[in-house]
Structures are given as C-alpha cells and as structure tokens.
Amino acid sequence: MKDLSRYFKGYLKETILGPLFKLLEASFELLVPIIIAFIVDKTIPRQDKGHLYLMLFLLVVLACVGVVVAITAQYFSAKSAVGYTRQLTRDLFAKVMSLSKEDRDSLTTSSLVTRLTSDTFQIQTGINQFLRLFLRAPIIVFGAIIMAYLISPKITLWFLVMVAVLFTIVAITSRLLNPLYGKIRQTTDKVVNLTRQQLEGVRVIRAFGQVEREEENFSALNQDYTNLQLQAGRLSTLVTPLTYLVVNVTLIIVIWQGNFQVHHNLLSQGMLIALVNYLLQILTELLKLTMLITSLNQSFISAKRITEVFEKPSENLEQEFIEESSDKNLSLVVDDVQFSYPNAGEPALKHLSFELQPGQFLGIIGGTGAGKSTLVQLLTHLYQPQEGSLAIFRNKKTPKSLRDWRSWVHVVPQKAELFQGTIRSNLTLGISRNVSDEELWKALSIAQASDFVSEKEGQLDAGVEAFGRNFSGGQRQRLTIARALVEPAPFLILDDSTSALDYLTEAKLLQAIHDKLEGVTLILISQRTNSLKAADKILLLNKGEQLGFASHEELLASNSLYQAIHYSQHEKGGSR
C-alpha cells in the first residue's frame, strides 16, 4: 500500500504542535477536580472567603488558558489536515490524469470523482479529529484513572473494569461497521454515476418521456443508500447509550463505595466529588473517542480506495517502440488487428487489415456498434490490439515513443469538448509555445469557423462558457476542429465530428483540409455517404468486421450493405 504519510511533509510542525497543545489542555482539566476537592475539604469548612476567591480565580484562569490552548490546538490540527489533503488531492488528480484509459474505465469516472472529493474530505476530517483527540482522550482517560488511584485504589478498580467493557463495546461495533462503511462508499459511487448520467442525458430523458422511470431508478438506488446509512447509524448510535449505561452503573457503584468509605473516614467528601468528576471526564472522552474511531474507520476505507488509484501504473509516455521502417511509402498499416473490451462477449474488432499512403483520405462508415470509435482508440494508442499489429509511419519511420505517437495523431472526438475560458485559450490548449493570431485565424478559416468568431465581441478573446454552452452544436464542432489544426499533425482523425454541420459547410471544410494541409492523412468517421464521396478509400465496418475497403464508387457498385446505407439517405431509398 502506498505510504500516504509522506503528505505530512511540510506540516510536521503543525502535526506535532496540535496534539501537544491538546495534551496541555488535558493536563489543565485533570487539575480541576483536585482543586474542587480542596475547596470542599479545606476552604469551605474553614469559611475562608479569601482562599475561596483565590481558588475560584485559579479555576477561571485554568478555563481561560484551556480555551486559548484548545483554539491553538484546533488551528494547528486544521492547518495540518487541510494542507495534507490539498497535497493528496493534487497528486491524486495528477495520478488520475496519468492513468491509461483502460485503468480509468475499470475504476469508472464516477468512482474517481467520489475519491477526489468525498474520500479526500473524509480523510481530512479523520486527520483533524485524530490530531485533536489521539493524545487528549488517552491522557484524560488514563490520567483520570491514575488520579483516581491516588485517591482510592479500591474504587479505581471499577474504573478499570468500566474502561475495559467500553473498549470491548467500541471494538465490536467497529468490526461490524467497517464492512458497512465500505458498502456505503461503493453505493456513493453508484449514486454519483447515476446522477451524472441523468444530468448529461436530461434532454433525451425528457424527449422520450422517461422522467418518471429515471426518478424511480434514482429513488431505488437512493433507498439502498439510505438503508445502508440507517443500518450504520443504528449500530453507531448504540455506542452512546451503552456507554452511558456502563458509566452510570459504575457511577452508582462509585457513589455507593465512596459513601461507605466516607462514613468510615477512609475518604473525604471532596475526594469523592473528585472521583465522580474524573468518572465524568472519562465518560466525555470515551464518547469523543468513539466518534474518533468511527471517523477513522471511514477515513481508513477512503485511504484504501485512494491507495488503490495510486497503485495503478501510470501510462508511460516515454515507452520506446521498436524501430520499424516501411519499404513502401505508407502512413498507416493495420495488419489482422483484433480487439476485445474487458468482460465483452465478443471482439469489438475482428481481423482488420488495410494500408494507407501519406496524404490519403480514409473514410470509415458502419452502423452503431460497428467498431468505428474503437478503431479510433487504437489509432490514438489509448488501447492496444490484442492480436495483430497497427503501425503509423512518417517518412518511413515510426514514432519512437507513445508521446511521439500521440503528437503525430490529432483527434476531434464525437462530442465537442470546450473549456471555460476564451476562444484563444481553447484553441491553444496543450501548446506550450506562443501562437500568433495569424496561425489561429488560419486554423479557424480551414475549420470554417472564422465567420462566426469574427462576429463575436472580442473575437479571439471572446468568452467560452463551460462545455461551450454559449455556442451552437455546429459552432462547437468547428472550434474543436480548429483546435486540432493550429499545429497540424501527420494524422487528423475526425470522429463523426462533422455530424452537426450542413453538407455545404462540411464540403468546404474537407476541401480546405485537402488544399491547405498538404501531406496530412485524413481519417473521417461519418454516417453520411455523401461526406465520404471524396475519400480515397472507405472502410466499411459491421459488428467489428471489415466488409469493404475501396472507393465510394467501387463500394456502391459491389457492396450490398454500402448500397443500403447510401440509398437509405437518398431519394431512391429514403427521404434525404
């Protein structure tokens, strides 16, 4: 398990001072019952008002100093906990971003969000409470027992019995609660995942009248979450009444035994009051200790979940590829590639084989689930084929590392992703050098986006809301295409990223890419055969199988599936 204690580095002073100030506060509290006993046994019988006022003043001073010390301890504890969590969350986020897509998929996005937010906050709460109580509670408990022993060894035995019984209760409760807290964390992941799906698909849900069904699904999952919380709550709430029961029984025994000793002059009334005060101090601290153990149990579970992420290997962008050279002038070679997703019933891609030359235009078409996006993930090396090989070439050389591979391939995904900021910040995303306005306008011009950008107030510095909500679907797609064109790569993949464009705009876009980006191998995934007419080759996929690899005219003349797709979109077989 990854050592998470290293995040205390830089906060070692606060981590030590917090508990020490709490220890100092506990020491002051242990003196209070002795002072009260002295007042009862010495000051009141002598009716010495001056001495009484002095003792009362001493109690006030102890209280004031205790408050100052407690606030100081809280400050150092909170500073250490917050600083620890800040560093942990920063590294956890960096780790999540460095994971391979396969590992991110296995952990799920909703679970990663929960670990980055809820789990880290739970650890922060646990650290804060631990630093404030892990010295104070034991010192008060054992200090009170020692002080009680100095007063009456016989009665102190009941104190020890009480502490042993209470620790047994806490241990049994913790053993029962830990599995429940683990299930609660897992159910939290499910709630976040379902909520995320419903929020992202709210328009589809409303369009198909599925609001009630989604409400029922959420209510069912929320009820499971509620039942787990109630079950854990019932178990944890048992500790308090059981603690009070044990302490009150002990209190009765202490008063009964103390009364007997007072009558036989073995114990003074003040000392009996001190014993009762020490007993009540133990009660208070044990209740706090119970709360601390409950919080620590949850923190340990959260720490285990976070450690699970840290233990995943980071994607090695510098991993070296075997140097290959191509005898032919090729840019892409796919040789008998087969790929299956984890736990899938059948392969997503089956025995794909084809070649492309530099500067060629490849179209990919097929129905839903044909494997088009899977092929894109292989081309970008997010996944690796389980069988066969896939290679890209630039001047007959392959990339030296995964970083080189990714820099050679620019992808515009199906869903246009824009980030809050400006048009400029979105276009220069991931580019470390200074990009001139001329380069940005050139990319916008090729992407057919310069017209609406020039109409915006501020133009390149016009604001972009999160997810590009202040742009239409077609505008978002053109801006994401422009982002991929600011620094042209040898391979440009448009993963159905022209679906919101009209035919004329799409045609202008493809023509501009052909005319102004010489030597770029264009791969366009589209559902529209009209978009692929200009392609040098069209890859036809169906349920992961390659059913054709030829030009538009050749497929239209010989391939029945391609004919069905084409004519369904035109007058002969459809309304388009």
* Helical content (DSSP H or I, runs of 4+): 55-70%
Seen as an oligomer or otherwise, the chain set is single chain
Distance between the termini: 59 Å
Which architecture of the largest domain does the CATH hierarchy give at level 2?
A: Up-down Bundle
How do the strands line up in the largest sheet?
5-8-9-3-10-11
Count of β-strands: 11
How many domains, as an integer? 2
CATH C-level category of the largest domain: Mainly Alpha
Mean pLDDT: 82
Largest sheet: 6 strands, mixed
Written as H for each helix and E for each strand, in order along the chain, the element string is: HHHHHHHHHEEEHEHEEHHHEHEHEEEHH
Radius of gyration: 35 Å
- Assign an overall shape: elongated
What structural class do you assign from the helix and strand content?
alpha/beta
**DSSP summary: helix tally:** 18
Low-confidence runs: 572-576
* Corresponding CATH superfamily of the largest domain: ABC transporter type 1, transmembrane domain
If you had to describe this structure to a student in words, what would you say it looks like?
- The protein is α/β, with parallel strands linked by helices and 576 residues long.
- It has 2 domains: 4-189 and 235-310, ABC transporter transmembrane region fold, CATH 1.20.1560.10; 332-568, Rossmann fold (3-Layer(aba) Sandwich).
- 62% of the residues lie in helices and 10% in strands.
- It contains 18 helices and 11 strands.
- It has helices at 12-46, 49-98, 101-107, 109-133, 136-151, 153-200, 202-207, 211-263, 269-310, 372-379, 402-408, 423-427, 437-446, 450-454, 473-485, 503-516, 552-558, 560-568; strands at 332-339, 349-356, 361-366, 387-392, 409-412, 421-422, 463-464, 491-495, 521-525, 537-542, 545-550.
- It has a 6-stranded mixed sheet with strand order 5-8-9-3-10-11, sandwiched between helices.
- Helix 16 links the parallel strand 8 (491-495) and strand 9.
- Helix 8 (211-263) runs antiparallel to helix 9 (269-310).
- It is elongated, with a radius of gyration of 35 Å.
- The two termini are 59 Å apart.
